[in-house]
Amino acid sequence: MNKDVESILISEEEIAKIVQDISAKITNDYKNRNTKLLLLCILKGSVVFMGDLMKHIDLPLEIDFMKVSSYGSGSKSTGNINIMLDLRRDDLSDTDILIVEDIIDSGKTLSFLSEYLTLKGAKSVKTVTLLDKPDRREVDFTPDYTGKVIPDEFVVGYGLDYDEKYRALPYVGILKREVYSN
Ligand code: IMP
Ligand code: MG
């Protein structure tokens, strides 16, 4: 285990099971549509989850990427959503977008993005998140698919970072408080 990790919250094996279950649900819910399914990865934290999810959804799909920031460099939300990389496509009117997020905290990122993509003219917009911390919600937001609800702890690994570190850990772990509290 990484020396900055207090404990493992979700093991590699548990993550694999979560990904399989969510992928099966998504496959079932979207299988009878004749529109295009677009998995929209929110960079950078969702990249590992997205990579696993897209392999297990048993449907034709396309992928795309957006980058937004709601956190600064530390562990506290700034509340501002900046679009760093936008989605530029001319086929949104017949595209079902499934936004792929690593974790929901205040809810600001996903509530903003859902509204933004609906206004841009997407046929439908749904959300899937690996992790959810409902105790931290500042705006009312409920994702369509949730991997696991977790307590209010700062977690890293499986794509999630603190100051760009720990993204490559294969599990989700609770970061030691001393790492970010100075
Ligand atoms: P929200 O807009 O407050 O819901 O923020 C969601 C974003 O905050 C996520 O995409 C992450 O980038 C970041 N975030 C929230 N909690 C954590 C955490 O525990 N570890 C790492 N990143 C987090
Ligand atoms: Mg993120």
How would you describe this structure to a colleague?
There is one protein chain. The protein has 182 residues and is α/β, with parallel strands linked by helices. It has a single domain (13-150), classed as Rossmann fold, CATH 3.40.50.2020. Helix content is 25%, strand content 35%. It has 4 helices and 9 strands. It has helices at 12-30, 47-56, 108-119, 177-180; strands at residues 5-10, 36-43, 62-71, 77-85, 95-104, 124-132, 145-149, 155-156, 172-175. The protein has a 6-stranded mixed beta sheet, with helices on both faces. Strand 2, helix 2 and strand 3 form a beta-alpha-beta unit. Helix 1 (12-30) crosses helix 2. The radius of gyration is 16 Å and the shape is globular. The two termini are 22 Å apart. The model has no long low-confidence stretch (mean pLDDT 94). Magnesium ion is lined by residues 42, 45, 102. Magnesium ion (MG) is lined by residues 42, 45, 102.
Provide a quick synopsis of the model.
By secondary structure, this protein is of the alpha/beta class.
Calculate the mean pLDDT score and round it. Answer: 94
Report helical residue fraction: 10-25%
CATH architecture: 3-Layer(aba) Sandwich
The main sheet comes to:
6 strands, mixed
Radius of gyration: 16 Å
What order do the helices and strands follow?
EHEHEEEHEEEEH
| Number of strand segments | 9
Q: How widely separated are the two ends?
A: 22 Å
Question: What structural class results from the helix and strand content?
Answer: alpha/beta
In CATH terms, what is the fold-level topology?
Rossmann fold
Spans with pLDDT under 50 lasting ≥5 residues? none
Number of domains: 1
How many separate helices?
4
Give the amount of beta strand, in percent: 25-35%
- What's the CATH first level? Alpha Beta
Ions and ligands? inosinic acid, magnesium ion
Strand order of the largest sheet: 4-3-2-5-6-7
